[in-house]
Design goal:
single chain; alpha/beta; Quinone Oxidoreductase, Chain A, domain 1; Rossmann fold; 6-stranded parallel sheet; 28% helix; 26% strand
């Protein structure tokens, strides 16, 4: 079929993106679905800081590629052998899944899947197939999802069936922002009542970490960001206190407030100053949960003797360190009972024509989560 999609041909174009236009809105051809594949009508896709990283070229991709890695839609057709979903099912699209057979998958760590990761790095679906093209030339899949399009062919493991009563523009955020932020609290840190936590970066992922920390019973939930305009929402969602990341007294203030430092620091941005600050405000024996991704080859420094002497730990958390098929339905229950008002993170919607301009809004910190509506 022929459909409209946002295609990236080059990484590292200059800002503002409204001028350089890293995404070209074009008609592309979509095959399938083949055996073991699913055709999804994409109804909503979230614009994430990971998309900014790809546009900036911090992590290389096989090009040209149809963008988008979190989304929600309706199953329209299934290939032979697919029994997990059927036409008409509402689904969340997520990259937080694996093959189910390799060692990480059997250890319930599918985000670390050896097999899926290799295929996605080549711009292919996890089964090794490619279903996108334009004028006879290859176009590749972004993380096996490619939700910046009207339709997507993917494999069932990237889809989580949801109740049709959940608005799809809200459901889209559960594919990455919600599962990543909340999962880092529930699965990686396992925050318990009485713990003190700090969250560096109060965007879509960070605010989900805040809501999860509140649900976990954390005593102090300290939100830290360079944009103080986000503080009101952060407090409404669960932060007990907020501080500017630019405050020169941040470390001293937090350590005094928490009698030695927080139990867990969640570093969402992936930038070096924030990592240093997260380390500084974490107590002896505490953990820094590293959620944000920097450039592929970036090196971060720490004082090794102090790490040993204070028995701190740096822990990576990819896509929430959990199991999407288990976690997303539970997180949706939290949304539906009002415990996690994810809808408050939605900054607005856009069509394809506004996609590049809204990259600039995201880069400037003016928004939390913008939602692309591929069908207008």
């Amino acid at each position: 079929m022929r459909m409209t999609a946002a295609v990236m041909y080059q990484q590292g174009l200059p800002t503002p993106y409204a001028g350089s236009r890293p995404f070209r809105i074009e008609d592309v051809d979509l095959e399938g679905p083949g055996e073991g594949e699913v055709l999804v009508e994409v109804r909503a896709a979230g614009l994430c800081h990971s998309d900014l990283s790809q546009v900036a070229g911090l992590r290389r991709r096989t090009l040209p590629v149809v963008g988008g890695h979190e989304g929600a839609g309706i199953v329209r057709e299934v290939g032979r052998g697919v029994g997990q979903v059927k036409p008409g099912d509402h689904v969340v699209m997520t990259v937080a899944t694996g093959c189910g057979h390799c060692r990480p998958c059997t250890e319930l760590r599918p985000a670390l899947c050896d097999n899926v990761g290799a295929s996605r790095a080549q711009g292919l679906l996890s089964n090794g197939a490619r279903r996108l093209s334009r004028e006879g030339q290859a176009v590749y899949h972004y993380s096996g999802v490619s939700s910046f399009a009207q339709y997507a062919v993917t494999v069932p493991s990237t889809l989580v069936k949801i109740d049709s009563s959940v608005p799809l523009d809200i459901a889209a955020m559960f594919g990455c922002a919600v599962v990543t932020g909340a999962g880092s609290v529930f699965n990686a840190a396992k925050v318990r009542p009485g713990h003190n936590v700090a969250v560096f970066g109060l965007g879509g992922v960070g605010l989900n970490a805040v809501m999860a920390a509140k649900l976990s019973g954390a005593s102090e939930i300290i939100g830290i960001d360079i944009h103080e305009s986000k503080f009101a929402l952060a407090k409404a969602l669960g932060c007990t206190r907020t501080f500017s990341a630019l405050d020169p007294d941040l470390t001293a203030t937090v350590k005094e407030l928490t009698r030695g430092g927080v139990d867990f620091s969640f570093e969402i941005s992936g930038v070096k100053p924030a990592m240093a600050a997260a380390n500084a405000i974490t107590r002896k024996g505490g953990e820094i949960i590293c959620v944000g991704l920097g450039a592929t080859n970036d090196l971060y420094q720490y004082a090794h003797a102090m790490l040993v002497a204070e028995e701190k730990a740096f822990r990576g958390s990819l896509m929430g360190s959990g199991v999407a098929e288990r976690d997303i339905p539970q997180l949706l229950r939290f949304y539906r009972d009002g415990s996690m008002p994810v809808d408050r993170l939605k900054s607005g919607t856009m069509g394809f024509a506004q996609l590049n301009e809204n990259l600039d809004l995201l880069a400037g910190g003016a928004v939390v989560r913008q939602i692309l509506l591929p069908h207008g």
